[in-house]
Design goal:
- The chain crosses the membrane at residues 6-27, 39-61, 67-88, 100-119, 139-157, 166-188.
- This protein is mainly alpha-helical and 202 residues long.
- The protein has two domains: 1-68, no CATH class; 91-202, no CATH class.
- It contains eight helices and two strands, in the order αββααααααα.
- It has helices at 8-27, 41-64, 69-88, 92-114, 119-124, 132-159, 162-183, 185-191, and strands at residues 31-34, 37-40.
- A two-stranded antiparallel ribbon has the order 1-2.
- Helix 1 (8-27) packs antiparallel against helix 7 (162-183) and helix 2 (41-64) runs antiparallel to helix 3.
- It is globular.
Length: 202
């Protein structure tokens, strides 16, 4: 954030997710009637999550003047799959949303490797300076991780309870991402450089 408090960005990113979780937990087992339609806790939480994410994304854009492509893609998929869940009153669409997001990210990163254009390096090189080989390794690992997360999401929502999926989505997936970044500390050290490389984006 430009000249802002350091907690603003995490609050904007985590706020909509925590709102979804709280609405689901508070209304779990209940039915709420809106516009002549009865909604369960999951779809009601989805209905709250969509505008919350849109507002949070708009605030980030106003504060920074830019949005990462992944933020835009996430918002579009949330509106699409979340909107289908609310419109059809069917939680399955929103549960599939993380799968679609992770497959999209894996496809983008995988293509960048095949095309020898490391877009991850181009986006993050200022925050995490590494040489080109380090970025290639990290991109490959992230591609495989996103494929694994897509598979994990499918297994959880198709075979476990709705409550289990909500806990998995709210806490499990962020924890896995955090552990992944932590596990690659050796890669950052081995391939770190003093500043952004001259070959960013290749």
């Amino acid at each position: 954030m430009k000249n802002g408090n350091p907690w603003v960005k995490p609050a904007l990113e985590l706020g909509p997710v925590l709102l979804f979780f709280l609405v689901f937990i508070l209304k779990r087992g209940e039915t709420v009637s809106l516009w002549g339609q009865d909604y369960g806790a999951f779809v009601l939480a989805t209905l709250a999550f969509i505008p919350a994410l849109a507002v949070a994304t708009l605030i980030q854009w106003r504060l920074t003047g830019r949005l990462a492509p992944m933020q835009v893609a996430t918002l579009v998929l949330v509106v699409l799959f979340g909107g289908l869940s609310v419109w059809l009153n069917d939680p399955r669409f929103f549960k599939m949303k993380p799968t679609m997001i992770y497959l999209l990210f894996a496809a983008i990163l995988g293509y960048s490797l095949l095309a020898r254009r490391n877009w991850l390096q181009a986006v993050l090189s200022e925050a995490l300076p590494m040489d080109a080989e380090g970025w290639r390794k990290l991109t490959l690992r992230m591609t495989l991780m996103f494929l694994g997360l897509a598979l994990a999401n499918e297994v959880v929502w198709r075979t476990m309870s709705e409550t289990t999926w909500v806990y998995f989505k709210t806490f499990g997936l962020p924890l896995i991402l955090f552990l992944f970044l932590l596990a690659n500390a050796g890669l950052y050290r081995a391939h770190g450089i003093d500043g952004p490389g001259d070959d960013a984006g290749r």
